[in-house]
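Record type: monomer structure entry
Structure origin: computed from sequence
Chain ID: A
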Amino acid sequence: QVQVVESGGRLVQAGASLRLSCSASGRPGSQLRMGWFRQTPGKDREFVATISWNGDSTRYTDSVKGRFTISRDNAENTVFLQMNSLKPEDTAVYYCAVSVYDYSGNSYTRENEYDYWGQGTQVTVST
């Protein structure tokens, strides 16, 4: 069992920066694929970013490329999402996702490629 906890979400002004954190615990020494999704009321959960178990590979949805950066501290199974130049359209509940196995053939852009999820952290970007 893996426990996943996100933090860092808050209300910010458009153009501001924000850094989200996610910690996965319960499996010391594991090599976890981790990612971020987001969801607004009435809409499907949307892929945002993902990072390989060793941090060598990252992938982003087109709408955040050049603004968001995903990184990790693998020793502590912690992942970060640095969000710059935030827009009102970025307003959502942000969820951290964890897979216990990092398969090279997967894109890790879909919900069903992950095993565990955090409860979410609210990011609100005002106009």
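Annotation 1: The longest strand covers residues 18-25.
Annotation 2: The mean pLDDT is 95.
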